[in-house]
Design goal:
The chain has 279 residues and is of the alpha+beta class. It has 7 helices and 7 strands. Strands 1, 2, 3, 4, 5, 6 and 7 form a 7-stranded mixed beta sheet that branches. 25% of the residues are buried. The protein binds adenosine-5'-diphosphate. It comes from Paenibacillus chartarius.
Length: 279
Amino acid sequence: VKISRISDIQGRTLKEREQKLREAGESLKMMEAQRKKLVSDISHELGTPMTSIQGYVKAMLDGVVPADGEYLGMIYGKVQYVNQLVADLFQLSRLESNKIPFTFRLLTPEELLRPYTTKFKIDADKAGVELSFTSCSQAAEAPIGSRKLVKADPYRIEQVMTNFVHNAIKFTPSGGAIQIEAELGDAPGEQSGTSLIVRVTDTGIGLHEESLPYVFERFYRVKAADGEGVSGTGLGLAISREIILQHNGTIGVISKYGEGSTFYFTLPMVDMEQKGTMV
Ligand code: ADP
């Protein structure tokens, strides 16, 4: 409940005014609780690696451990992680406050997705995972007039795809497979208008059902069986969600623990006649 002007609560009965003020108070309290949680999460996420760095350096200074490649390498890894975390946080906060300009273009699904498939294949290959890409042939076969184009910022969509595919590689053991599919259809929950649906499916470790509602939240990471968190800032999917929402699209995941996951997003499509238009 937002009360921005006094007239928002004037002209009501006393009871209504009290109710309105109470609701506004509740939502302020909720925002304050969210802000506190964010500050505490950030302190924790930054504090943990910083404490390790301090410990390693102190141990070296005291001569408890040698200042050799092994320890310097560990420190370097932590510093790199802190840097990545700060960069991701900065980007997420700029996205959330609409400070990142998007350059939307009208493209065919192929034009949007094809450019990075080779790069992804090489990345997957290195991890011993097979990667395939199937794009909606529908779009190419349809008569020109009825073809649809997707309105997207290719650079930002590449970022989302990189996050999905790199996660798929990270959470899929060697010998597994990743499939990227693009097809036209109705976005889940949407009645009107065609969308481009892009799915990244892996045969990896999958997610427990109780994790599914949280994976797109900042800092959410599933703990590995040995209690150790996997590498990563836990911000990639939160950034991806912001990017897709700013495209008026939807984002989601379907997964089965032990079998694999499908991360998907949808983007609204428009008629071909508008090609060339910068939006
Ligand atoms: P991170 O940088 O830690 O990977 P993300 O926001 O990209 O952060 O992902 C959040 C969490 O979601 C991951 O730590 C992991 O627990 C889970 N996750 C993401 N992608 C997959 C996947 N393909 N298979 C299984 N779990 C995944």
